[in-house]
Design a protein that fits this description.
heterodimer, A: alpha+beta, H-NOX domain, 2 domains, four-stranded antiparallel β-sheet, 14 helices, B: alpha+beta, five-stranded antiparallel β-sheet
């Protein structure tokens, strides 16, 4: 991973490894996202969709970053190194072209699920669809097998209070149908001209510094990546968006508002834990100076963070005490949707919508004088029910063919 | 609002931080006295106390060790908590300073419960519908409780409006709700 060519598509604040799009998300977002997919599709179907999405996404990545490797062992080594460097956990692969096994004590999803929920509830199904998809993809790529030739099933999982996560790898009786993936070339036609907004110079400079900082982050000896008070992953957008849109597109019409609400909620979770954690970190103070706690300071900080994490060139069009207009011509969701599915009849940039709302909640309802702790119970209080204090209305969306994506957040 | 009953019952119990009376089986706060208000929500804690006593009762019954006089004692870092069933309709939770000697705490609890039990009403509680209790249980224990109704709606096909008025759910809908609750909580059975 570290030797692979990383690309920052400069005017758009989108990040790629060898043309494969990726972003940064924390465990809180990752768990909520997967939970939502399973709630919509059902546990079994949801898990299958997630494994296949991860399988396809990692196959795309691993094929790209193992181009120079000439033996299966070299390719497996690169794959394991990349997975750990992305913060997903250090996985030991023991596989041949006919199958085998894999194990890890620290798969990101299982480990973080146990950390966050394990003392509270039990889990019956394993949590590491992403790792299962990776294991199958790594085996295929190592042995130059066709897409879907291998399948991996997680047999034990730390989220089920088992000592480690283990995966059984077998040849698929019939090829596993994998979803298509989107790369930089497919996304670029759907990116609009780059646009700046209020505080552009400060936001741009801060985002650049943050991009350099997070690019230097690597997984630790466990293959996990800790920073800003959360576990972070460098993750493939094809995974997130394939699974999110599978949930949104397969949901019954009557359930769609709830699905969309939960997909936006996942963004609330991200902004609260990751953006908030960054704002409160010493690293942020060194990058952006001391946080004043003024709402304008929080919102522009959040926009810089979004850019720094590779979400796209978000820009503030208007900002007042009761109103935020946030726009973008290069959010990571829209070009994926357009390339994968074509034009939508409804706004589909759910993360962007949810994040804009959460930014205003953070700006106006959190005390940034050092007394706030970004705990789960604080989140539950802040985002519970209808008492958010703001509502978000998408006005235009590139998934619908508009030239930019824009939302208006108003005080209620 | 603290009743006269509790005001009298806690008199002269110096190391006491709070007393919560929980109505069973629905685990709803019936009455409370809190020395230092505002640090936590008595309604929420009372529900957990009720659940805790119920779980303890079931566990002891499984062991064949249950008796109506059993009590739960919790020694945390900064509090000493004693939970006891006053009768089949009420559970009393007493929270003391951690530094209070256990023997003294037991003495205080015995005296307070004598006073409290004498003043509690004789009631024939009407049990809440099972669906109401399931929703209440999920709100207390499910991950991401703020989103729980939406999650249940997706898993059951019930609308949010239906879930917000669970007392009107049909038996089939209640069963569907219970199945979803078990999935979400990773439980084989819901003992409510």
């Amino acid at each position: 991973m570290s030797e692979a060519k990383r690309l920052l598509l400069e005017p758009h604040d989108l990040t790629f490894v060898e043309d494969v799009p990726y972003i940064y998300h924390c465990s809180h977002y990752n768990l909520f996202h997967d939970q939502t997919v399973d709630d919509v599709l059902g546990d079994t179907a949801g898990q299958q969709v997630r494994v296949r999405a991860a399988h396809a996404a990692f196959r795309q990545l691993l094929r790209a970053i193992t181009q120079g490797a000439s033996t299966p062992m070299e390719r497996l080594s690169i794959a394991m190194g990349a997975f750990a460097a992305m913060g997903h956990g250090r996985v030991d692969l023991d596989v041949t072209a006919e199958g085998g096994s894999a194990r890890t004590g620290h798969a990101h999803y299982g480990f973080c699920w146990a950390e966050k929920y394990g003392s509270r509830v039990s889990r019956t199904l394993p949590a590491d669809a992403v790792a299962a998809g990776f294991v199958a993809a790594a085996t295929e790529v190592a042995y130059e097998l066709p897409a879907g030739a291998m399948q991996a099933v997680e047999e034990t999982c730390v989220a089920r209070r088992e000592p480690e996560c283990t995966f059984k790898v077998t040849r698929a009786a019939t090829p596993v149908p994998l979803p298509p993936t989107v790369d930089r070339q497919a996304m670029e036609p759907f990116l609009g001209p780059s646009e700046g907004g209020m505080d552009e110079a400060w936001i741009g400079a801060t985002a650049d510094t943050l991009q350099e900082f997070v690019a230097a982050m690597e997984g630790d000896e466990r293959g996990l990546m800790e920073g800003f008070g959360v576990f972070i992953t460098r993750h493939l957008t094809n995974y997130y968006l394939e699974t999110a849109y599978a949930a949104a597109r397969q949901a019954p019409e009557s359930a769609l508002p709830i699905v969309e609400s939960l997909l936006r909620e996942a963004a609330h979770v991200c902004v609260f834990h990751t953006f908030g954690g960054i704002l409160l970190s010493p690293e942020w103070e060194s990058v952006a100076g001391r946080l004043s706690g003024e709402p304008e300071d929080i919102v522009r900080g959040c926009v810089a963070i979004a850019r720094g994490l590779g979400f796209g060139r978000w820009a503030i069009r208007e900002l007042g005490p009761d109103r935020l207009v946030l726009s973008t011509t290069s959010n990571y969701e829209a070009p994926y949707y357009a390339a994968r599915f074509g034009k939508s009849d409804r706004p589909r940039c759910y993360f962007f919508q949810g994040a804009a709302l959460a930014m205003m909640v953070l700006a106006h309802r959190v005390r940034w004088d050092g007394s706030a702790e970004l705990t789960q119970s604080f989140y539950d209080d802040l985002f519970r029910g209808q008492g958010l204090g703001f509502r978000c209305e998408p006005t235009t969306c590139q998934t619908m063919g508009h030239d930019r994506t824009e939302v208006v957040v108003r005080r209620t | 609002m603290t009743s006269e009953l509790l005001e009298q019952a806690v008199k002269d119990v110096a190391p006491l931080s709070a007393v919560l009376v929980t109505a069973m089986p629905d685990c709803l706060l019936y009455d409370s006295w809190v020395k230092e208000e505002g640090r936590w929500a008595p309604e929420e804690v009372a529900s957990y106390f009720g659940d805790l006593v119920r779980s303890n009762r079931e566990a002891l019954k499984s062991l064949g060790s249950w008796s109506s006089t059993m009590q739960v004692t919790i020694e945390s870092a900064d509090a000493l908590v004693v939970l006891r069933e006053v009768n089949e309709h009420f559970v009393c939770g007493c929270i003391f300073d951690r530094s209070a000697p256990l023997g003294l705490v037991r003495l205080h609890v015995d005296r307070m419960l004598d006073r409290i039990s004498a003043g509690l009403p004789q009631i024939s509680p009407e049990e809440q519908p099972r669906a109401v209790r399931i929703i209440g249980f999920l709100r207390r224990y499910a991950p991401d409780p703020h989103a729980i109704l939406m999650r249940v709606a997706l898993r059951t096909g019930l609308s949010l409006e239906q879930l917000e008025a669970p007392e009107h759910l049909t038996p089939e809908q209640t069963q569907s709700l219970e199945d979803a609750a078990k999935q979400i909580l990773g439980l084989q059975e819901l003992h409510l």
